[in-house]
User: What shape does this take?
Amino acid sequence: ITDRLLPTLSIGSSSSFNYSDMNQNFSLVKKKKRIATIVTALQIIEPRLTDISLLSDGIYVDVQHKPQLIPLTTMGNGFQRIANLLLALPSVSNGLLVIDGIEDSLHFSVHGRLWEVIASVAEKLNIQIFATTYSLEVIRAANMVFSKMKDDQFRYYRLDRSIGTETVVAKKYSPKTLQAALDMGYEVRG
Assistant: This one.
């Protein structure tokens, strides 16, 4: 056992962003030469994206056929949320990231690709991720993505209240158990 604390970060579900933290995280990503990974991941939302830059007044994106760079602050909440999440990952290398309401501001069509990116980066950087959701689409997408990986990469926990005691109980689902429950139409959300 070590006395060293794990790097830990929590990303809330609110649509407000701390741009100062995002700027610092961008600098870390740039130093580690991982901007291309961020650009590729952000193309989930904006396929015409070609680059992302930090200027003196904030983060800007380069989108094909636009005459100038576009401030990140003018992009949609979903785009900003993914940018915030991806830029934060390197700051918790060998640590823990908690994401509340991972689906917040994101269209269901990007959930699978988002999980693919998160899984890939988290594995490379040795990050354990805890994500909360009420979205069945997010649960399905995560299970689909992680079912293609080693069995120990994903666990789903449903929180329920114990009848009579009102104690919160966590029920663990392996990817196979979760898939069977989804296939049979069982309610897997707490």
Q: What stands out?
A: The CA atoms of residues 100 and 132 lie 5 Å apart. DSSP finds six helices and eight strands in the chain. The chain has a mean pLDDT of 88.
